[in-house]
Amino acid sequence: MLTTNGIQQATEAVEQAKKKVNNRHRLGYHIMAPANWINDPNGLVQFKGEYHVFYQHHPYDENWGPMHWGHVKSLDLVNWEHLPIALAPEDACDKDGCFSGSAVDNDGELTLIYTGHHYIDKERDLFYQNQNIAVSTDGVHFKKVVENPVIEKPPADSSHHFRDPKVWKRGRDWYMIVGNSKNNIGRVILYRSPNLRNWEYIGVLAEGNEQLGYMWECPDFFELNGKHVLLMSPQGIKEAGDHFKNLFQTGYMIGEYEYDKNKFGHGEFIELDYGHDFYAVQTFLDDKNRRIAIGWMDMWESDMPTKKDGWCGALTLPRELTLSADGKIKMVPVAEVTQLREKKLSAIENQTITSSYEMGVQGSMFEVEAVLEVTNAEKVELVLRGIENEATVLAYDKSTNKLRLDCSKSGKKKDGIRRVKLAASDQLKLRIFVDRSSIEVFINEGEATMTSRIYPTEPYRSVEFTSCSGKSLLKKATCWKLKDIWNEK
Ligand code: FRU
């Protein structure tokens, strides 16, 4: 199959741009483009035994612009390989952007379902959006189908926001949900198809209210431990205490769904992560029957200092989702992630901390696994200490059961703090993944997560546990140096 001009040009542009990338904040084990801008993960799928991840990509610039689909694949969800750009916006169906979407394996044909973006008046951000399909048998070269757009426009009562199709199969039918809004209220609408080409509009699967935002981006809908989960990324939810602190959120609703009635009875909207940088999350089911999620590890309109370095944007570690007994999603890194452990840097057991204990760890890419008992102390802290007064600090306050992530001295000067309230307990289990410009904190085996980009100027000099106003017990703590899968340095 011939690659189109747009794809060839874009792939070459990235190759060129790569030469100018400054590596200082480049991540070592997260998905990024070789150069220039990326945002949402797209088209997560397993195809012919390999994991494929696509992403929103501007191959020509470190800022968002005409969206292409970048592409990586992996055999193990840990070691990723860049492939040529998969989609370029160069056809009548997607003239101003190939926006987010999903992928399915249709009997050996890898099918991408994505949104075509079309400006009516770019200056005034007037646009329309439609849904399109591209197919591939080799999993590398994609051809847009002649039936495009497969859905030309949204239902009559809809706004112009009509994007981010997520497709799945049930029995003989294909289903698609699309992010949408009506009268400035976010909603998700549902279609059905026998063949991925002809789609029938079924109706609204779920809709919000004034509190739940004006538009729901990147919807996903799946079964988890016998329940149905609607995952989406609403725009326009107002901050409330420790909640909804980012510009936009990703969260979910759990419920029961009746396919024959298109009826989704569900609970409240719950945030999925409590850090600064976690958005547009998408999931897929792999051949081990795991529901795996990957998100964009940034947030619209945040400071993104790597733009100066010729690249911008990354995806989170792949995370496995399960449902807890109290109806909340638990997220842990997929088991394969332990393959990143290159060397044990430090390990300790049953260490009483009266004031401070230093792990003897230095570096910029490491994992810390720790179990703490906080019986007597008021607060325990984990300080990643950098040069001068740089630091990233996690602090657990026993009286409130809140864990605080403070990145104000590691590149997030304004609004550097996030908090999450945990179930009351004397024990705190942490798994922390530090990369050159990110931190992902997995708390109590998935009870909560906090994901943020951080920008220390130099590798961390030490990892310290501190106990305030009383003793704590470090039951176990291990630190590993993690592998650089890109080996760019
Ligand atoms: C979410 C999003 C999607 C859209 C894409 C454009 O971050 O706004 O709704 O398809 O990014 O790049």
Automatic annotation (TrEMBL):
Matches recorded under InterPro entries: ConA-like_dom_sf, GH32_Enzymes, Glyco_hydro_32, Glyco_hydro_32_C, Glyco_hydro_32_N, Glyco_hydro_beta-prop_sf, Suc6P_hydrolase
Glycosyl hydrolase family 32 C-terminal domain segment(s): 336-481
Principal cellular location given in the protein's record: cytoplasm
Pathway assignment: Glycan biosynthesis; sucrose metabolism
Cellular localization per UniProt: Cytoplasm
Assigned GO CC terms: cytoplasm
Phylogenetic classification of the source organism: Bacteria, Bacillati, Bacillota, Bacilli, Bacillales
TM annotation in the entry: none
Swiss-Prot/TrEMBL catalytic activity: Hydrolysis of terminal non-reducing beta-D-fructofuranoside residues in beta-D-fructofuranosides
Function as written in the Swiss-Prot or TrEMBL entry: Enables the bacterium to metabolize sucrose as a sole carbon source.
UniProt name for this protein: Sucrose-6-phosphate hydrolase
